[in-house]
Amino acid sequence: MSLTDILSPSDIAAALRDCQAPDSFSPKKFFQISGMSKKSSSQLKEIFRILDNDQSGFIEEDELKYFLQRFECGARVLTTSETKTFLAAADHDGDGKIGAEGIVSFKYRMRHLRMFAVMWNSLLC
C-alpha cells in the first residue's frame, strides 16, 4: 500500500507546495491540506506504518526530519526547528518518538482546539 492509496495525490502535492520554504512547515496545516485530518484512526495508523521508514513502530527524530520526503522523494527535509516542533506536538507520552497513537491523538487534539476556537470566537462576538 502507498500513501496515494489513502490520500489524494493532488492534496499531497498541495500540502507539499504549501511548505516548500524552510521553516514554513506546520503539522496542523499539513494534516489539513493533505487530507490526513479527515482520515479515520485506522487510516492514520496505516499512513503511520508507511511513514515509519525503519518499521520500528515509532517515528524517531532522525526519521521525522525526512517526513516530507516520504510523500515525495524530491521534497525538502524539515529544519531542526520544524522537526522539534512536530515531535513536541505529536509525542503524546514524552518519550522523544511518535507512535501510531501519537499521530491519531494529534489529529483529535487539533479537532478539539478547532472546536474551542469556534466557541471562544462566538463568545467574543
UniProtKB/TrEMBL annotation:
Q: Which domain of life is it from?
A: Eukaryota
Q: Name any one GO molecular function.
A: calcium ion binding
Function of the molecule: In muscle, parvalbumin is thought to be involved in relaxation after contraction. It binds two calcium ions.
| Pfam families found in the cross-reference section | EF-hand_7
Q: Binding residues for Ca(2+) 2, per the UniProt record?
A: 91, 93, 95, 97
Q: Which CDD domains match?
A: EFh_parvalbumin_beta
What's in the keyword line of the UniProt record?
Calcium, Metal-binding, Repeat
| UniProt similarity note | Belongs to the parvalbumin family.
According to its record, what are the GO cellular component terms? cytoplasm
Organism classification, top ranks?
Answer: Eukaryota, Metazoa, Chordata, Craniata, Vertebrata
Binding-site positions, Ca(2+) 1: 52, 54, 56, 58, 63
Q: Residue limits of the EF-hand domain? A: 39-74
Under which name does UniProt file this protein?
Answer: Parvalbumin
List the InterPro entries hit by this protein, alphabetically. Answer: EF-hand-dom_pair, EF_Hand_1_Ca_BS, EF_hand_dom, Parvalbumin
